[in-house]
Each structure stands twice: as structure tokens, then as C-alpha cells.
Amino acid sequence: MDDFSKQKTEQIILHASDLLSTLGRLKTKPTTWGGHVHTKLPNSGVENSQISEDGIPNYLTSVISSSLQWIDDEETREEIWEAASARIAERSGRTAQPTLSRIFSIPRPSSSEDPIQISLREPSLTADNLGHKTWLASYLLACRLPSLKSLLSPLSDAPAKSYKASTIGCHILADPVRVLELGSGTGLLGIAAASLFPTWQLRLTDLEAIVPNLEANVDANRALFKCDNPPEVDELDWSLTPAPLAKAYESYNTILASDPLYSPSHPEWLFNTIHSYLLQHHTSRVAVELPLRNAYRPEVEEFKTRMVDGDFSLLDSGEETGTEDWGDDTGHGSREVECWWGVWGWSSL
């Protein structure tokens, strides 16, 4: 190769490297929540905050449509096209985005303590697997858990014998609080509960298609579980009404559920599952967080009615508002969402 050809090749390689570097700088940060209940998704945007979004979609489209004939190496061309395609997908709403990982900050009971940092993997959304996304309601209820502890586990303050090393501060309870989460999704609520209350025995559940990612997220956050007591993960389909439970250890002191209603069938299925798995005891509790989206308000009201008619009393409740990073039908943008939370107990016990 003569000097001119060598110089030209080096320039092409340099320009291709610059193009890949530019595409890398256009990568968007995944939105997240943190700090306190009303945090407004502060960590969104491109990696370099000085880059304006104006014109970026057209630029990316031009890269994809270009033959890149000035680049001789086919692998480099493919790498550039793939990077440009990924940047477009990141700007096309949650349903078009590739698999992403996000960090969620959950405040601890004491403001002097650092918040819990939970890392969650969210696969690409396919079919109707909405459990692969972390929803606002799970974050709101996770943040509320410390203030609800005495209500959710009124018998949990009587330690029995030491558990593991006393320096860890772990203990076994005389009557361990067994907690079942329904529709765990990516696991934010259940992982937060396991980290906040290390002596709780948690079982996180969802449909078969959701469970592998849920298991992966629990394993990825294992360092948060102080008493070497990670949550169990299992499949649970609410549409399959369980047979009457014959043994006490198959039922639970507390049941958690966040954003579980998005079908006309769900209020009945959710109530039946709660009624079947909640321990028949006056201290048993059900805690739910339900978004008040217009499309599913009838399901929310039906669920409340079923709970009242089904021998449950509402012990505490309230409403709160947060920003959901799911604006339109494709998951593009964000919007304010009002949520209702409630804690229930058996009426007749």
C-alpha cells in the first residue's frame, strides 16, 4: 500500500470512529425514580446534557439510510447502523426500547441513612408482558412501606432466638411474618420489602413469562438482603383459583400488590387469590397501590366492593400523585398519575 492509500485508509478509520463516538454520546439515559415519593424522573435525557434533541431523529435516520460506502469494513458499517438504530429505538417510546437497566432509590425509615439502591433489569416489552416494566405504583408503595410496618406486621416486634451472627442484627421471630406479593413484575416492591425488613419471609410471584427476569433481579440485588434471607420467587396465575388451603404454613400474614388491575377479569381473580392465601387471623393484612387511570377506574371500584363484601375492612388509605414514565400508548413521554393506596384486614376476626 502506498503512502497516499495508507493515509486515506487511516482517515476513513478515524472518521468511522468519530461517527461511532457521536452515536455513543447520543445514547439516552433510562428514566428512573429516587429520593422521595414525588420525585419527577430527574435522570432522563442524553448522556451529554449539552446536546439538543432538535434534529437528532433526522440525523439518525440519515445514518441508517446511508450506504456508508466510504467505509470499506463491513463489520464497522453494521456496527454504525446498529448503533443508530438503537438510538432511534430509545427515542420511540418504551415499547420500542431494547432491554435496559435502571437504579431505583427507596428511602429508609431514618432520613440519616442512605437510601436503598435497587438495580432492575427491564427486558424489551413484547406481546402483553407489561410485567417487564417497573410501574409507578410499585415505587410509591415501596416508599410507603416503612410508615406501614406496624400496621402490616403488628406481631413482628417480638424477637425470639438470634439468627446468624448477632453483629448483623438479625433475629428469627416467634411467629415470622410471611409475606406474599402478587404480580411482582420486575420485583421493585418485593426487593424493597426484603431490604427494609430482613426478617420477613417473602414470596414474590407473577406469570410464567415474567418469572425468569424477576428471579434475575432478585439475584442481582442479593447484597441488600442482610440476613441471607432472599425472597422466594414463584409462578402464580390468579385465574387458577387455588383449592382451600389445608395447612397454616401455606397462607400468609401479609399480601402486597401494586398496579394489578388491567383487565375486567382481574378484580375477581385478585380478590379470590387474596381470600385464598391470606391467613385467617385478626392481624393479617392486605396492602395495595392502585393507579386511578380512567381506563381502569371501574376495575378499581369493583375490587374495593369485592373486598368489603368479602369480609374485609379498610384500615387505612390515601391518595398520592407521581410521574409515570409512560405517556402515550407506546410508552413515549411521561404523565402525572394519581394513585390510591389501602390496607385491609379481616372484618370478622
Structural write-up:
- With 349 residues, the chain is of the alpha/beta class.
- Helices cover 32% and strands 22% of the residues.
- The protein contains 8 helices and 13 strands.
- The protein has helices at residues 3-25, 56-65, 74-90, 136-152, 188-196, 211-220, 266-277, 297-309; strands at residues 28-29, 45-46, 100-106, 116-122, 159-162, 171-173, 178-182, 201-206, 232-235, 254-258, 285-291, 312-324, 335-346.
- The strands form 4 sheets. The chain has a 7-stranded mixed sheet with strand order 9-8-7-10-11-13-12, with helices on both faces. A two-stranded antiparallel sheet has the order 1-2.
- α1 (3-25) packs parallel to α3 (74-90) and α2 packs antiparallel against α3 (74-90).
- It starts with a helix and ends with a strand.
- Residues 1-13, 35-48 and 156-168 have low confidence and may be disordered.
Supply the number of helical segments. 8
Side-by-side strand order of the widest sheet = 9-8-7-10-11-13-12
Shape: elongated
Helix content: 25-40%
Number of strands: 13
- Note the beta-strand portion: 15-25%
Structural class: alpha/beta
The low-confidence parts are 1-13, 35-48, 156-168
Which sequence of SSEs, written as H and E, runs from N to C? HEEHHEEHEEEHEHEEHEHEE
Rg to the nearest angstrom? 24 Å
- Distance linking N and C termini: 89 Å
Mean pLDDT: 80
Largest sheet: 7 strands, mixed
